[in-house]
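Researcher: Last one for today. Full complex below.
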Amino acid sequence: MQYSFAERTKSMLASPLHFMRSLSTRESFISFAEELPAEELFPLSSLEAAAAAVISKSPAALQYGEPQGYLPLREWLCNNFKQMKHTEVVAGQILLTTGSQQAFDLLARVYVEPGDPVLVEHPTSPGFLQILKMQGAVIVPVEGNADGIHPEHLLQQMESIRPKLLLVSPNFTNPTGVLWSLERRKEVLEICRSRKVLIVEDNSYGDLHFGGISEKEFYSKYPSLFSLDEAGKGGQVLYIGSFSKTVVPALRTGWAAGSKAMIETMVMAKQLADWQSSHFNQCLLHYLLESSTFDILEHVQMLNREYEIRLKLMTELLKRPAWKGSRFEIPAGGMFLWVKLPEALDSVALLKCSLDKGAAFLPGTLCYTNGEGREYIRLNFTHPGRDELLLGMNLIGEAITEFTARS
Amino acid sequence: MQYSFAERTKSMLASPLHFMRSLSTRESFISFAEELPAEELFPLSSLEAAAAAVISKSPAALQYGEPQGYLPLREWLCNNFKQMKHTEVVAGQILLTTGSQQAFDLLARVYVEPGDPVLVEHPTSPGFLQILKMQGAVIVPVEGNADGIHPEHLLQQMESIRPKLLLVSPNFTNPTGVLWSLERRKEVLEICRSRKVLIVEDNSYGDLHFGGISEKEFYSKYPSLFSLDEAGKGGQVLYIGSFSKTVVPALRTGWAAGSKAMIETMVMAKQLADWQSSHFNQCLLHYLLESSTFDILEHVQMLNREYEIRLKLMTELLKRPAWKGSRFEIPAGGMFLWVKLPEALDSVALLKCSLDKGAAFLPGTLCYTNGEGREYIRLNFTHPGRDELLLGMNLIGEAITEFTARS
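Model: Here's the assembly. Have a good evening.
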């Protein structure tokens, strides 16, 4: 039969993200396009022990659980907020989700009407842009610099519209890797407070910071907007986090933290969307986090040391002749390097050539809503091992050389 | 701050389902309200072995997976369709979801516009009604009898409106437990085909059938609408299934099967909603299903034998004096008994009294959209053990006696 899909489905059909994903599963293909952690660093033996313990302890771990998520894991998060982020949160303020993607999707479903203006960092996360499009939001970009979004531009954009929310990622913005200054965080929070605009703060990448500083130290220097808003007591900020980058992605455990009123509404949307995320995975994760054989702080420090080395290698490779004229800022954390291509190069055309050679990157256009970004690419440096980094960057380099020779 | 939630959120706020869930987690509380399988029958040792094998085999099981779901598990489902349900399906026609709830939610998101009329069995699944409300559908009930929905009433309801889809559950309709006759299946499919109305067929309960007949025999006698439509080649039927009732709920693995065009669109919505369900859980489930220590056919036969005993016990208990005047049909499978209360009893009022005594059921009103169903209750017979069944039914019986004495 001929289907008549909902109007909103059409924007979704145009997304090239799906195509990218299926490509990268090909054998011997090197992808810098996605945001995958390094699987050779997964804590496999601790996970195996945790799975055995959880299953043998009680069948309850395999039964339906709470739509809001396993209480002990939410309590663990509260304790982590307190110890590491100087923030007092109670378990009722947390909803466990299927990754950070679902946390934002649920928020959008309960909060955004078709036609609502939504402010976003410019450029921003392709996955979150898709959610906003599906929800029919009018996406309004806010420009920024190395300290975060410009307060002046934020105010300017607010003059003509009443935005429903502002979506930001102050710790290593996807894709630019920008780490907002403390001053900028305070300014932006104050502006949104005075205008009563909800802030959605994605902190999926915050724990991945380089330079050897501890988690506690990092969050002292760079408190989340959520912390500055006293853990959402004022309800100004909805915070999004995830274990996908710090433990493993396949347990699909992220969370939203905010005011009780907001979280309670999101819980109801969660229940409607899929009843609940995997209770088993949440039990397993909680067991792992509490087990004596696994220390998440040490684990993440180890990840950060290795990711910093990979980033350094990537920036070294960008000094090779093929990349001459490319420009980038070295991020202090996160998973991406945001590169402006040598003059006159179009990232979408370059991608086609690069795919033929067996390597992929994310074309900058996917991080914008208006066709901008053709001269940018996003490179992930956490997934490829060092050999792959070398080979993949060479393959893209070859593609660039061919293009430059032609023009 | 004061939130301005989206308009559609309001219908959701009224849902009492959430309240029921949180109650039933109380200690020593007996709930017949939900649809939980018996956790003492979970295949724990096989699951433990599967988890260990999957984790130690490769870190890839803990990495991000495919939005559409783990290919070998989709292939297993294709083989199961072929062997047990005489139906040829290819892996591209299947999307793995977070339970059957998400399968229907994704369909509704891509297919239903606010204001679209949607036909449903009358009464129908509370969880699915919530999805339709959230999507802004106009819910149009179709009456039925012991053979399934009435073709005449279906045609009559189609006269004045152009429905977007028809939602049915021919194998043990939730809540009534009706098993549609083959004749009725063919008639309904033909009507929807001629009117070009998509059918969504929920088969979450089909494998739980009593009377000792084999799975193959059952599906020969009662082929799904999807099978009758040649496995969705015509695209007339979207089929929904789940491992929640046959293996364990906490792996949160359900699926949608349909035409490639429909599934591809749903995959994009899936990616947007949460990227993908747990790849780890899908790998674990696949390993379990292929392992020599676990035979899903035998396992489900064992469940069916035990569930049939529990159902029999429940119907015996309904013969006690307190329940005099109640009426019900004994279902040939599924998880629920749909009981019309002794005259003049209101299920919502009775529930309050029953909750005080420590037992719960689902009031019939939740299975309707228009306030009907006050004289009905839905009792789950799969989760409570035999002792709990006895005690819980007595507690509700006491509540009934009090009410009857008062009036």
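Residues 296-317 of chain B form the longest helix (22 residues). DSSP finds 15 helices and 14 strands in chain B.
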